[in-house]
UniProtKB/TrEMBL annotation, chain A:
Top-rank lineage group of the source organism: Bacteria
Biological source species: Jannaschia seohaensis
Membership in a protein family: Belongs to the ABC transporter superfamily.
Family matches, as Pfam families: ABC_tran (PF00005), oligo_HPY (PF08352)
Name of this chain's protein: Peptide/nickel transport system ATP-binding protein
The entry's keywords: ATP-binding, Cell membrane, Membrane, Nucleotide-binding, Transport
Protein localization: Cell inner membrane
Automatic annotation (TrEMBL), chain B:
Membrane topology of this protein: Peripheral membrane protein
UniProt-listed CDD domains: ABC_NikE_OppD_transporters (cd03257)
CC annotations in GO: plasma membrane
InterPro entries given in the database record: AAA+_ATPase, ABC_transp_ATP-bind, ABC_transporter-like_ATP-bd, ABC_transporter-like_CS, Oligopep_ABC_C, P-loop_NTPase
Domain of life: Bacteria
Similarity comment: Belongs to the ABC transporter superfamily.
Organism of origin: Jannaschia seohaensis
Gene3D superfamilies: P-loop containing nucleotide triphosphate hydrolases
Pfam families: ABC_tran, oligo_HPY
The name this protein goes by in its record: Peptide/nickel transport system ATP-binding protein
Subcellular location, record wording: Cell inner membrane
Domain ABC transporter residues, every copy: 14-260
Length: 329, 332
């Protein structure tokens, strides 16, 4: 780490959704930092709050969801309480975004070149011809062949993988310091996914850009991320360096999640499965949200206060984390 | 005729779709008719009580084959024979009905494949009720088998989670006591931990009921776990067929090797791979010769001119002029 101030800091971030049946908390007391040049992978199953966290960072929560506690800092500056107009200036300029479906992220009625040029003009003090030149360079950088000729093409003229490249070019054209990628490869075929992953890694390294990669795919995380945050029921279950999380998970949920992937069970007749289902947000159990499904749960887990990362264990939010020695046994 | 033991025999299966513009546009714009060959000359057998998996990327024709096997689509050429009967040409209604009862299908999206206005009881007993069978207690029995509660029979699909819905789809598929279940991406819409539950359930039921699966998926790790034999498809053609162990440890076709290499691995932290080049070509106008040659690192002149035939190779089959000549750096 060359820069002591992390690019992104979340401090006890909490998101609430008031409903008729009480308040739901899709993101609950989440804290982490992402340094320049670092890729933080955020994993979890549907409903774990990973996309919500990403949306909260860029201020794109759909009403009535709102940040009800904690703070979001971009390069040391608080951004969660900024007025909408200032937030718009940050979005796209200092934080780039890539979403799952490339087709819905692009305007079907504008050429790719126009969309890139418009974005550059909006955020950077350059002339139109300079903006077009930068747009061509942007397309070239993400690996679109004959970038100059493709400037006049519409999104539907590109294949799925090429479209996602365009979206990445669009997210990066204003040279943001932070990239938030929400399931960027989920809609793509394996071979194209490998291309997009390699591209994201290269760009982060070359530009020293921080990235938050939200995905449900453990394999993608393992290959891309430097550090991993595992979320469960809106809470941070475990966070640490990628090799440690995947090879030596300390939280029983991470352990179960890793073991239930078919790759990890290669050669076994049955996959290991976590009993039960993820609890509903309106009906979270007391204490640790994972305790009803946890093989290690004891009495203390069933009552508040629940375990928090850093208090009981440096890596996992668990009273009885798995030891490396048990792992070997 | 295939060996007696094969429950399903697919021979030279081909399906062509007419993707031309409407005739008026063709006349005005002077366009020719356009055809998309989704499946081309595919042959394989599925022995009873085994799982045959078809893998491939989008546009490889794997779902089209699945639909032809269950009879939702008619083959343009070739035959699908199930238990010795070809549904497309069979004329005896009693035989057709018997074979149809033997085939069921599970679809990818458990939200789209259950009628939201029907109760669970009606949904899962429909395959039997439609043929006038006795359904007393059937729904409760099936729900128990797939790990749900008998009381769930009175609920509606929206009251279930994604994984539970897929269990309902499995229960419905089991209702008519089929021999063959075609599963088209059955766990792609599910989370990993839920996927594990559904895959385990499918393995258990296979043992209990002596089922045969045609398992269609794009996910190599799932296929490796489930299949007894795997067929790899590229642009509508079978390029390689082998047992899971052979396929993953010594892929013979360069496309198979590329797929295995490109799939993200859990133990490959910060792996720096040169990603595969290019994308799947346009199926309306596929490359001449071997369809994979523009992306193939081993391509020679012969590959551009002559399409390789699917020929026996080791314990499997492969369609490549340079079969087995792959440098196996990453296959493990």
């Amino acid at each position: 780490m060359t820069n002591p101030t992390p690019v992104l800091t979340l401090r006890h971030l909490t998101v609430d959704i008031p409903t008729r049946h009480g308040t739901l908390r899709p993101v609950d007391d989440v804290s982490w930092e992402v340094a320049a040049g670092e890729i933080l992978g955020v994993v979890g199953e549907s409903g774990a709050g990973k996309s919500m966290t990403g949306n909260a960072v860029i201020g794109l929560l759909d009403s009535p969801a709102h940040i009800s506690g904690g703070e979001v800092l971009l390069e040391g500056q608080r951004i969660d309480d900024l007025p909408l107009r200032e937030m718009r200036r940050i979005r796209g300029k200092r934080i780039g975004m890539v979403f799952q479906d490339p087709l819905t992220s692009l305007n079907p009625l504008l050429t790719v070149g126009d969309q890139l040029t418009e974005t550059i003009l909006r955020h950077l003090p350059v002339s139109e011809s300079e903006a077009r030149a930068r747009a061509v360079r942007g397309l070239d950088e993400v690996g679109i062949p004959a970038a100059k000729d493709r400037m006049g093409a519409y999104p539907h003229e590109f294949s799925g993988g090429m479209r996602q490249r365009v979206v990445i070019a669009l997210a990066l054209c204003a040279e943001p310091t932070l990239l938030i990628a929400d399931e960027p490869t989920t809609a793509l075929d394996v071979s194209v996914q490998a291309q997009i992953i390699a591209l994201l890694k290269r760009l982060c390294r070359e530009r020293g850009m921080a990235a938050m990669l939200v995905t449900h795919d453990m394999g993608v995380i393992a290959e891309t991320a430097d550090r991993v945050a595992v979320m469960y029921a809106g809470r941070l279950a475990e966070i640490g360096p990628v090799a440690q999380i995947i090879s030596h998970p300390r939280h029983p949920y991470t352990d179960g999640l890793m073991a239930s992937t078919p790759a990890a069970s290669a050669g076994h007749a049955r996959l290991r499965q976590i009993p039960g289902n993820m609890p509903r947000l309106g009906n979270l159990p007391h204490g640790c949200a994972f305790h009803p499904r946890c093989p290690r749960a004891q009495d203390i887990c069933r009552h508040d206060p629940r375990p928090v990362v850093g208090e009981v264990d440096a890596q996992a939010a668990c009273y009885f984390p798995i030891d490396a020695s048990e792992d070997a046994a | 005729m295939s060996p007696r033991s094969a429950l399903v025999s697919v021979q030279n299966l081909t399906r062509v779709f007419d993707v031309s513009k409407p005739w008026l546009n063709r006349v005005i714009e002077r366009l020719p008719k356009r055809y998309l060959t989704a499946v081309s000359d595919v042959s394989f057998d599925i022995p009873a009580r085994t799982t045959y998996a078809l893998v491939g990327e989008s546009g490889s024709g794997k779902s089209t084959i699945g639909k032809m096997v269950v009879g939702l689509l008619r083959p343009s050429e070739g035959h699908v024979t199930i238990d010795g009967v070809d549904l497309a040409t069979e004329t005896d209604p009693a035989v057709i009905d018997r074979i149809r009862t033997d085939i069921q299908m599970i679809f990818q999206d458990p939200f789209a494949s259950l009628n939201p206005r029907w109760k669970v009881r009606d949904i899962i007993t429909e395959p039997v009720a439609a043929r006038g069978g006795d359904v007393t207690g059937l729904a409760e029995k099936l729900l128990t088998q797939v790990g749900l509660a008998p009381e769930d029979a009175g609920k509606y699909p929206h009251q279930f989670s994604g994984g539970q819905r897929q269990r309902l789809c499995v229960a419905r598929a089991l209702a008519s006591e089929p021999k063959l279940i075609v599963c088209d991406e059955p766990t792609s819409a599910l989370d990993v931990s839920v996927q594990a539950q559904v895959l385990n359930l499918m393995s258990d039921l296979k043992e209990e009921h002596g089922l045969t699966y045609l398992f269609i998926s794009h996910d190599l790790t799932v296929v490796r776990h489930m299949a007894d034999r795997i067929g790899v498809l590229y642009l509508g053609r079978l390029v390689e067929e082998a047992t899971p162990d052979d396929l993953f440890t010594k892929p013979a076709h360069p496309y198979t090797a590329m797929l295995i290499d490109a799939a993200p691995k859990l133990d490959a932290f910060g792996r720096e791979v040169t990603p595969p080049e290019g994308e799947i070509p346009d199926p309306i106008d596929p490359p001449k010769g071997c369809a994979f040659h523009p992306r193939c690192p081993l391509a020679i002149d012969r590959c551009k001119a002559e399409r390789p035939k699917l020929e026996p190779f080791g314990a499997g089959r492969v369609a490549c002029h340079r079969a087995g000549e792959i440098a196996l750096e990453s296959a493990a």
